[in-house]
Amino acid sequence: MTLTVGDLAPDFTLKSQHGEAVSLSAFRGERAVLVVFYPFAFSGTCTGELCALRDDLSAFQNDDVQLLAVSCDPVFSLKAWAADQGYEFPLLSDFWPHGAAATAYGVFDTDAGRATRGTFLVDVEGKLAWSVVNGPGQARDPDAYRKAIAAL
After folding, report:
1. Is 84 part of a structural domain of the chain?
2. Where are the beta strands (DSSP E) in the chain?
3. For residue 146, is it within any domain?
4. What is the dihedral of CA 26, 32, 38, 44, to 10 degrees?
5. CB-hemisphere CA count at 13 Å for 32?
6. Which domain holds residue 127?
7. Looking at the domain assignment, is residue 8 inside a domain?
8. Backbone angles phi, psi at 139, to 5 degrees
9. Strands 32-37 and 13-16
10. pLDDT per residue over 78-100, tens digit each?
């Protein structure tokens, strides 16, 4: 599935690293949401990307925007990774049904069984406002997220 700016973002409900159910639609009418799909917890590039978000968290999670990071890792791996790295934002498990949310956003790699590096900014009305998909091993630029959030 290919999403375009203006499309209603596919809803999902996934478990966080704390075992809590988090739904994209719960933020509708309240805050925009930055949805960051990444391949694997504990991998070098993914750790670097999420640490960049952690280190400037107020730019990506505040009264206007909520950060949700999504991978196909199980909840227990996400809990250990969050504790190890000090992530204080939701890490969501798209483990089962395996990759269903990533598939809905067109970023599930069926051959590798993981999400690709897809980033989606969903506006307060639940519509896709901006997106970028990076190839394997290509780290994302957090400045692009800042610009997209500022343009809302």
Report:
1. yes
2. 13-16, 21-23, 32-37, 65-71, 91-93, 108-109, 114-115, 117-122, 128-134
3. yes
4. -120
5. 22
6. 13-150
7. no
8. -70, 150
9. unpaired
10. 999 999 999 999 999 999 999 99
In a domain, 67, yes or no: yes
As a whole number of angstroms, the distance between CA 110 and CA 112 comes to 6
- Domains contained in the chain, number: 1
User: Is the overall model pTM greater than 0.90, yes or no?
Assistant: yes
User: Could you count the other beta carbons within 10 Å of the beta carbon of residue 66?
Assistant: 21
Which residues belong to the active site? 46
Structure-token pair, residue 18: 């704390």
Q: What is the CATH number of the domain that holds 114?
A: 3.40.30.10
According to DSSP, the residues that pair with 35 across neighbouring strands are 68, 120
pLDDT single digits (tens) 10-56: 999 999 999 999 999 999 999 999 999 999 999 888 999 999 999 99
